[in-house]
Amino acid sequence: MRRTPSRRLFVAALLAASVLAPVTATPVTAASAASAATAVHLAGVDRHDKDDCPPDGLGRELTARLDKAIEDVRQKAGIPGVVVGLWMPGKGNYVRATGVADTATRKPMTTDLYTRIGSETKTFTVTALLKLVDDGRIRLDDPISRYVDGVPNGRRITLRHLAEMRSGLFPYTADPDFVHDLLSDPSRSFTPPEVLAYGFKHPNTFAPGTQFEYSNTNLVLLGLVIEKVSGLSAADFIDKQVLRPAHLDHTLFPSGAEFPEPHARGYTNQTLSGEIEDATDWNPSWGWTAGAMISNLHDLHRWARIVATGTLLSPETQKQRLKMLPTGHPGTSYGLGIFDSDGWIGHNGSIPGYESVTVYLPSRKATLVVLLNTDITYDGQEPSSLVARAVTEIVTPGNIYDRPLPPR
Question: Which among 99, 69, 77, 85 has a CA at the least distance from the CA of 30?
Answer without folding.
Answer: 77
